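From the shared-data thread, chain only:
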Amino acid sequence: MKPNTQQLNDLTIQVRRDILRMVHAVNSGHPGGSLGCTEFMVALYQNLMDRKEGFDMDGIGEDLFFLSNGHISPVFYSVLARSGYFPVSELATFRLINSRLQGHPTTHDGLPGVRIASGSLGQGLSVAIGAAQAKKLNKCNHLVYSLHGDGELQEGQNWEAIMYAAAKKVDNIIATIDLNGKQIDGATDEVLPMGSIRAKFEAFDWDVLEIAEGNNIEAIIAGMTDAKSRTGKGKPVCVLLHTEMGHGVDFMMYSHAWHGKAPNNEQLASALSQNYTHGDSDY
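Structure, as tokens:
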């Protein structure tokens, strides 16, 4: 039985707490984008995806997810752990030597839930499209989901993949773009303006929809349910998810400054106080 909206919101707060504590503990990591995508990742794994018990790399008979902007690993690890892929206590090993939870996800450590190494940006869509085509070959009717940063779209390989997916009618994929308008060096419009991302995807013959409230669980579920209804109709599907980097922590929002910076002790205490939950189960 799927969790209700209140349960999803409670889990979102818990995941935020995980992100903040993980990054603070090693004074390293990427809290901004992780916090901005928390609602999306919680909704994806707890409501939207059709997942099997356990984990295998073949992924036959279930939906698949590929994280392309791998630097937001804190939210990925937290959601995986809170969804039963590995013990929540393992979150305490984030970025430590010999940990399975490295700064960018890797496959050689055998961490359940991780399907590709995604430290180098711009490659995830190519992999996701390949997996989607494999599903077609295997007569598997499940979907492939992927998540990408908007700044990541400045990498050229994305556009080869976007062109390919439409040309080959890969219509069992939903690629979501975290459209927060920020990247490590500033606003995306200042670093390298990309114009209308929607117009670009549509010019490449993708079916595009937008979720204006990308930090609202109900809006995400409604928008992604719409996206799912558009699959299987000859076009790949793109979701433009409008989020706020650092969402849920007032001093991290509306700035690119927290893209890759850890909070100090006082900042952590403030951030956790803004994300208090009665049923918290911090690792």
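The CA atoms of residues 124 and 270 lie 34 Å apart.
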